[in-house]
Amino acid sequence: MHLPDHHGGGGARRVMNEAGQFEFEEVPYRLVRSPRRKRLGLVMADSGVEVRIPERCAARHGHRFLQENIHWVRTQLLRARQRAAEIPQHRFAFGEYFPWLGRQLPLLRVARAAEAGIDGHAIRLYTRYREPDEAQLRAALQRLYQREALALLTRRSTELAGRLGLAFSSVRVRRTRSKWGHCTLRGELQYNWLVCLAPEAVVDYLVAHEVCHLRHHNHSRAFWQLVASACPDYRELRRWLRDNGHQLVL
User: What is the bridge-based pairing of β-strands 22-24 and 27-34?
Assistant: First the structure.
């Protein structure tokens, strides 16, 4: 199949711009070579559409692969735009409301660091700035969320592990881009603290998922049976996290 640089018929062309990107039917994309890759693949990266090709693969095969799958690419781009439009935009100021365990709570200012915390009624935040700007307030709020999430997730993990007769070495929270949780072979439980913005039942599902990995470091039938014993509604809650996780931002 011949891939001309220009093709008549309104926009069905492949050209390279100044940023090193190609374009086909107004869809920009990049060719990315990988020495480990054995097959061609399409990735919707933060930087845009990437056509992943093996190191020794001729570029024309990557261009052809993109053209043959342009409908799928357009569908994914549309879905990404729709999901981006669903992401809440927060205004970081005292008196505004923020999510915690699925509830919208007011952000209140407290005079002492010892008074800071989150309960079922409010988010109480201390800041040393007399008149903090949005960036300072956001940073302080994120630190509070991380602290409270670590305490909550440690408590829930300890309770469930005890019931299942399991043990872990530590609990950590971090902000990850692709995973909500992880259990290492050393028994370390790692959680994305943003999950604490979700409904409480979703948090409990994630804890069940990671704690059960202490016994089964796989996704076998035995693993899911153990998850079901700890969280009977795990299918519904797992689906909620998959469909709504992109809205959990702070």
Answer: antiparallel
